[in-house]
Design goal:
Belongs to the DSD1 family. The chain starts with a strand and ends in a 5-residue tail after the last strand. The protein has three domains: 188 residues, Aminopeptidase; 214 residues, TIM Barrel (Alpha-Beta Barrel); 119 residues, D-serine dehydratase-like domain (Lyase, Ornithine Decarboxylase, Chain A, domain 1). α10 runs parallel beside α11 and α11 runs parallel beside α12. By secondary structure, the protein is α/β, with parallel strands linked by helices. The chain contains 17 helices and 25 strands. The strands form three sheets. An eight-stranded mixed β-sheet has the order 1-8-2-7-6-5-4-3, sandwiched between helices.
Length: 577
């Protein structure tokens, strides 16, 4: 075996001092052929704001400051962290290396956490050539061997100058860190998003900034959970609005449950956080289906696909051939002429079902979405829409069962019909997403009060034109989105309703115009009200027409509670496809 010497600088360099042996490193590498299933419930992708905490954790782990090296590796690699709310418990970096990928460095509180970090990184590398270097004394060799990573050599890690002193023993490029050591450096190590560069009060936030009211979020979540329980159905929340593991943990406080996603990126993200049962509720393309099934193959998760055409059904054979995974598939239904899907009595329903089976896939059920409900505004109309959605979905399932298809899952939902359904007999699961945050469209439909809306954009007053009765803020459509979903409702809310800095609605003040980075606040036409005093530099909160669209403009939530100016946390959110 080839033996090489690697030198690592200590916390101080002593001129002319001899190099000291730091430990024996075993090199393990090979094609990753084993299926990897991480326990990743508290592991998430790192963000730029985490870097200070990662560097501080690394220094405590290794006993030597190496912030530039850690930052350089993070800049070219994928970084994950163990985030236990009040603190970091570890990090890992994976980057391209030669013909494949190398996992390391890894630092964790325990070897078990180190294994979990490594598995979380390996979960996305099935079939790739992978290298992991480990310290001999920690006995990870057999475990890595079982994953297909054979020992190919060793090296002696060296340090120039005095030997670094870390708390605990050197690990797998993890080093163990005890509670006592962590407590000695609380300012650098505690990781509730209140530290590591995140701000503590909204008055120092750079605007525009996305706010999330924790109290409202929790009440909204509880409301629909209780309604679904009363109706006797499984609630499969749609994460397309929140796109955040922190929000998901409030929906599922006892561990991951069934979810709906709208992009493969969301599926990959939530799989990395331990979610196993997902419905990808957008009509599949062959490319998106292959990527989704590749995720299933790598991680063992179950991602169910959606389609409504014979062409998509036929393509499932190609998906299966490309990935070696048998897809699970829903047929999308049209219950209200709103969007895609097949009518329950359309002969193509049975034809598509047959083509799914012929392609070697599993038909797991039918799925409907009552999009028409977003245009309603009365109790009777919403109750009727919910019942029509139920009848259409149950009818389709009955037709398929009569043709020999088991159709075990009968899924429906939209935020309006989910709240106004009075009877879900024949339905197995309920889906909704916007309910976690709510928005002005849902308020206009009659699903929520304006005080239930949990997200808003914080903006600063940057100008005024008194002759036009305008106030200018630094939030345009890049922060608020271009969504004008209330334009066809009884009350047009412009680009959003304006509140004061504490979140109290300013009567009849709306964002009437928006350019890329500017919003123009005016009094609603015909109101007769006067513009309240909003001096330059004052702050306002702007409620969204469409919560999904507003949140989609931002990378993270600054979490608040009611009128308090304190930022309780910073929650990252996934973007992209």
């Amino acid at each position: 075996m080839c033996c090489s010497i690697r030198q690592r600088k200590g916390s101080r360099s002593i001129g002319g001092a001899a190099s000291l042996a730091w430990g024996t490193v075993l090199q393990r590498q090979g094609p990753l052929t084993a299926a990897v299933t991480p326990n990743a419930c508290d592991i998430r992708p790192a963000t730029a704001s985490d870097m200070a905490a990662i560097q501080a954790f690394d220094e405590l782990a290794t006993g030597m400051p190496r912030p530039s090296m850690v930052a350089a590796l993070a800049d070219v690699g994928d970084v994950t962290v163990i985030d236990r709310g009040e603190r970091f418990a570890g990090y890992a970096i994976t980057r391209r290396f030669g013909r494949g990928f190398v996992v390391g460095p890894v630092a964790a509180e325990s070897l078990q956490d180190a294994k979990r970090l490594i598995l979380a990184q390996l979960a996305t590398l099935h079939g790739q050539f992978v290298r992991v270097d480990v310290y001999a004394e920690h006995g990870l060799g057999d475990w890595l061997e079982s994953l297909g990573l054979a020992r190919v050599g060793h090296a002696i890690a060296m340090v120039n100058g005095r030997r670094p002193v870390s708390d605990g023993q050197p690990g797998c490029m993890p080093w163990r860190i005890s509670r006592s050591a962590r407590n000695e450096d609380t300012g650098a190590m505690e990781r509730n998003e209140k530290t590591c560069g995140a701000v503590k009060a909204i008055d120092v936030l750079v605007t525009p900034s996305l706010l999330l009211d924790r109290g409202r979020l929790e009440r909204n979540i509880q409301r629909l959970a209780e309604h679904a329980k009363k109706l006797g159905v499984v609630l499969r929340p749609h994460m397309k609005t929140a796109k955040s593991i922190d929000v998901a943990r409030h929906v599922f406080p006892h561990g991951p449950g069934p979810i709906t996603v709208s992009t493969v990126a969301e599926a990959e993200y939530f799989a990395g956080h331990g979610f196993r049962d997902m419905t990808y509720a957008v009509g599949m393309s062959t490319a998106s289906a292959i990527r989704a099934m590749a995720l299933c193959r790598r991680t063992g998760v179950d991602v169910k696909l959606l389609l409504d055409t014979v062409e998509q059904a036929d393509a499932l054979a190609d998906v299966r051939a490309a990935t070696g995974v048998t897809p699970s598939v829903f047929i999308e239904l049209d219950c209200d002429d709103h969007r895609g899907g097949l009518k329950p009595d359309d002969p193509k329903l049975v034809e598509v079902a047959g083509r799914i089976v012929t392609a070697g896939a599993n038909l797991v059920g039918v799925l409907a979405h009552a999009g028409e409900s977003y245009g309603l505004s009365t109790l009777d109309a919403l109750v009727t829409a919910a019942e029509n959605e139920r009848l259409a979905t149950v009818r389709a399932a009955e037709i398929l069962r009569a043709r020999g298809h088991a159709c075990p899952i009968v899924s429906l939902g939209s935020t309006p019909t989910a709240h106004f359904a009075e009877n879900l007999e024949g339905i197995t699961e309920l889906r909704a997403g916007a309910y976690m945050f709510f928005d002005l469209v849902q308020h206009g439909v009659g699903v929520c009060d304006i005080d239930d809306i949990a997200v808003s954009v914080l903006a600063t007053v940057i100008g005024a034109k008194p002759e036009k009765r305008w106030v200018l803020v630094d939030a345009g459509w890049m922060a608020l989105s271009r969504d004008r979903g209330t334009a066809n409702q009884q009350v047009d809310q412009g680009y959003g309703v304006v509140c004061d800095e504490k979140g109290r609605v300013l009567e009849d003040v709306i964002v009437s115009q928006a350019s890329q980075e500017h919003g123009i606040l005016t009094i609603r036409s015909g109101s007769g009200k006067s513009m309240p005093e909003l001096p330059i530099g004052s702050r306002v909160r702007i409620l969204p027409n469409h919560a999904c669209a507003m949140a989609g403009q931002h990378d993270f939530y600054s979490v608040v509670d009611g009128e308090s100016p304190v930022i309780e946390a910073r929650w990252e959110r996934i973007r992209g496809w």
